[in-house]
Automatic annotation (TrEMBL):
This is 3-deoxy-D-manno-octulosonic acid transferase. Pathway: Bacterial outer membrane biogenesis; LPS core biosynthesis. GO terms for molecular function: Kdo transferase activity. Involved in lipopolysaccharide (LPS) biosynthesis. Catalyzes the transfer of 3-deoxy-D-manno-octulosonate (Kdo) residue(s) from CMP-Kdo to lipid IV(A), the tetraacyldisaccharide-1,4'-bisphosphate precursor of lipid A. The lineage of its organism: Bacteria, Pseudomonadati, Bacteroidota, Bacteroidia, Marinilabiliales. It comes from Mangrovibacterium marinum. It comes from the Bacteria. Belongs to the glycosyltransferase group 1 family.
Length: 412
């Protein structure tokens, strides 16, 4: 298994280089891999203890970010190195000010892991959620550098918990983690069943992040003016399949207004969405007061506003559930409003929990969406009850970051 793993890593790097002339993501990845050691050599060793935080991509960064910012606030002499595996994480967050350096993670070969750790010499390492790079884990363990997995979540079908050679090999990888900070009891139980009792249930650090975002939310007069006294559905991070089941509801319910904040804000996508609205839409960046009074749809054609837009909604719909998976439900739930999304949500613990508490509602068709929206819009009492329950749910889950910081750094 070790041989196959090493070969797989080299093949991945080779294929990415081969695809780089034809694929933007592969091109960024290959370029980053080529330059990363030169950049690290220029910056290291840093003065002071280095805390290494590794995230696969943007989603994991949102879980690692509260931890980074808590460390920088409480231990200002520590230096934080933030690494990404995916270009979609690195390219968006390469200028993140709270990290002392942001870099690609060199691919997980034995030589790369050894060279990386020789340069960086971290005091402690945090991997976020799903990252299990064997050579880095082995290298940290050999140097007695503590490794913590944060916001981790495990499922029974994962290879770690299977019988046979592959399961045994993957469990051996897990054994190199010093402590698991897991999201739920099921994850702790699965680890315990294979002899890994070094876990603490702390929940998901994203709850802390969305609470911070909500506390710093922006006032958006354009959205407030657009809503007026109308019932408002905010559609966040939408894709075409989401939009196609929502637009008919707009046509059938003239009293309802909708804000679309699509996942993709390129001009071609905004133009397509404007066309779907059949002359009833106005773009956020071009909105005038007279337009807002008569418009039924407001399209947010810029980034950075969605988390503040949700506060104006009576209901929220989160996109992605008819594709690879839903986007961030917590950004909406922090405002204690009912949340709807497509059927592909089961990999997201917070969404599963919201559904189990009847605070979120999955839909798989235009008709099911219509039924749920009608029921929720028509009952202010039901929405008020959901708001109270959602408030309790958020309060129960906020605080994971500080639990992690206290356990890690108070024990050193």
């Amino acid at each position: 298994m070790n041989f196959l793993y090493q070969v797989g890593i080299y093949l991945y790097r080779f294929v990415a280089a081969l695809m780089s002339p034809f694929n933007e993501k592969a091109r960024y990845f290959s370029k980053g891999q080529t330059s990363v050691f030169g950049e690290l050599k220029e910056r290291f060793p840093m003065e002071g203890d280095v805390v290494w935080v590794h995230c696969a991509s943007l989603g994991e960064f949102e879980q690692g970010r509260p931890l980074i910012e808590a460390i920088k606030k409480q231990y200002p002499t520590y230096k934080v190195l933030l690494t990404f595996f995916s270009p979609s994480g690195y390219e968006v967050r390469k200028d993140y000010a709270q990290a002392d350096m942001v870099a690609y993670l060199p691919v997980d070969t034995k030589a790369n892991a050894r060279r990386f750790l020789d340069l960086v010499q971290p005091r402690v390492a945090f991997f976020v959620k799903y990252e299990f790079w064997k050579n880095y884990i082995d290298g940290l363990s050999a140097r007695s550098i503590p490794l913590y997995l944060v916001s981790a979540i495990f499922r029974e079908e994962q290879l770690f918990f299977k019988k046979g050679l592959r399961g045994s090999w993957y469990r051996q990888v897990l054994s190199g983690v010093d402590h698991f900070f897991v999201q739920n009891q099921q994850s702790a139980d699965l680890l315990g069943a294979v002899g890994l009792t070094n876990s603490t249930i702390t929940g998901d650090t994203r709850f802390d992040r969305v609470a911070e975002i909500a506390a710093a939310r922006k006032d958006l007069p354009i959205v407030a003016e657009f809503k007026g006294q109308s019932p408002l559905l905010v559609v966040g991070s939408s894709w075409r399949p989401d939009e196609e089941i929502i637009m008919p509801y707009l046509q059938a319910n003239p009293e309802v207004k909708i804000v679309f904040a699509p996942h993709e804000v390129k001009e071609a996508n905004i133009t397509r969405l404007m066309s779907m609205a059949k002359g009833q839409a106005v773009r956020y960046t071009q909105a005038a007061e007279s337009d807002l009074t008569n418009a039924r749809v407001l399209i947010v054609d810029c980034i950075g506003l969605l988390s503040s837009v949700y506060r104006y909604g009576d209901l929220a719909y989160i996109g992605g559930g008819f594709g690879v998976g839903i986007h961030n439900t917590l950004e909406a739930a922090i405002y204690h409003i009912p949340v709807l999304f497509g059927p592909n949500y089961l990999r997201f613990q917070e969404a599963v929990e919201l559904v189990s508490r009847k605070l979120a509602f999955p839909v798989d068709s235009e008709e099911q969406l219509r039924q749920q929206l009608d029921a929720l819009f028509e009952s202010t009492d039901r929405r008020a009850a959901i708001a109270q329950a959602c408030s309790r749910f958020m309060e129960e889950n906020i605080g994971a970051t500080q639990k992690i910081v206290q356990k890690v750094f108070n024990n050193q």
